[in-house]
Amino acid sequence: MKSLIAVWLSGMLLLIVCGCSRSAPETKSNEFFTSWLQDHGESNIVADANGIGLTGNPTRLRFSLYDSSKTSNSYTAELEFRVRIPDGREIVEYVAGSGDSQKKAEDDAKVNFVLSTFHVIYRGFLNPNDPHQNEEKITINGQPRAVVLGNTMARGQSGSSSPDAFPLRERFREILSPLPLSAQTHWIKIIYANQHSNVMLCEVTMDNREAHELTDTVKKLPWPGHEEFYMVKQFILVK
Question: How many alpha carbons fall within 13 Å on the CB side of residue 140?
């Protein structure tokens, strides 16, 4: 799935609805997360073998270049983001971006991660008072749970807009309601792509694993019909 999405990203327009040694990528990763946290008012930033985090908080952040390619007029880069959460598990996400240079492609992937996923992680594990995301209370399988629903991100073909997927956010909440989730933290990622009103891709993962029943449910949601290609990404944290 990762390489297929990377190919589709070439020439897409991003829309937001709501020989090197190992030390080089580690340095880039540290600089990116340190700068981002500083921009959000954090000063107690620490770095260790697991990545970047905050003093007194076990959450750690890091990324590395997973893959890259070049066509005649475009670059594509896939970054592997890893977030070590307080219980020791890792959120792993492969995020692709495109641009007219390698750096711009990597920067595009970072924007993708920040706007769709990172604010959810920041609110969920690092700063419960972050104003960029809301934590809401819902009932899942009869139990009260806290949910952080990230921005719904869509990509459409260059020069065209993608359809409005915002109304589906309530449906995303509804499909969580019957899930027999354990008491531990869970993370869910939805990827959906459509062209000529035909489903090109629908995949849902939970805790980094494919969730086939959830995929079937999400595929049946009333996704907008659209002649041009569009792709939607939704990241959800359940605490």
Answer: 21
**Per-residue model confidence as pLDDT tens digits over 107-164:** 999 998 998 899 999 999 999 999 888 899 999 999 999 999 998 888 776 544 566 6
Q: Considering Cα of 143, then 84, then 152, then 114, what sign does the dihedral take?
A: positive
The first and second tokens of residue 214, run together, are: 């959830």
Give Cα 110 to chain centroid, integer Å: 10
The torsion angles phi and psi of 118, rounded to 5 degrees, stand at: -65, -40
According to DSSP, residue 120 is labeled H
Structure-token match 């700063």, residue found: 127
Across 205-231, average pLDDT: 91
Helix (H, G, I), strand (E, B), or coil: what is residue 23?
A: helix
The length of the chain in residues reads 239
Query: pLDDT tier at 68 (50, 70, 90 boundaries)?
Result: confident
Reading the block at residue 71, the tokens are: 């066509």
Say how far residue 176 (Cα) sits from the centre of its chain: 18
Q: Give the integer Cα–Cα distance in Å for 174 and 179.
A: 10
Our CA angle for 25, 28, 33, nearest 5°, is: 125
Could you tell me if 7 and 150 are in contact, meaning their C-beta atoms sit under 8 angstroms apart?
no
> How far from the centroid of its chain's Cα atoms is residue 131's Cα?
18
Neighbouring-strand partners of residue 25: none
pTM, rounded to two decimals:
0.85
The distance from CA 69 to its chain's CA centroid, rounded to whole angstroms, is: 21
3-state DSSP assignment of residue 219: helix
Give the burial string for 82-117 (b: 16+ CB within 10 Å, else e). Answer: bbbbeeeebbebbbbbbbeeeeebbebbbbbbbbbb
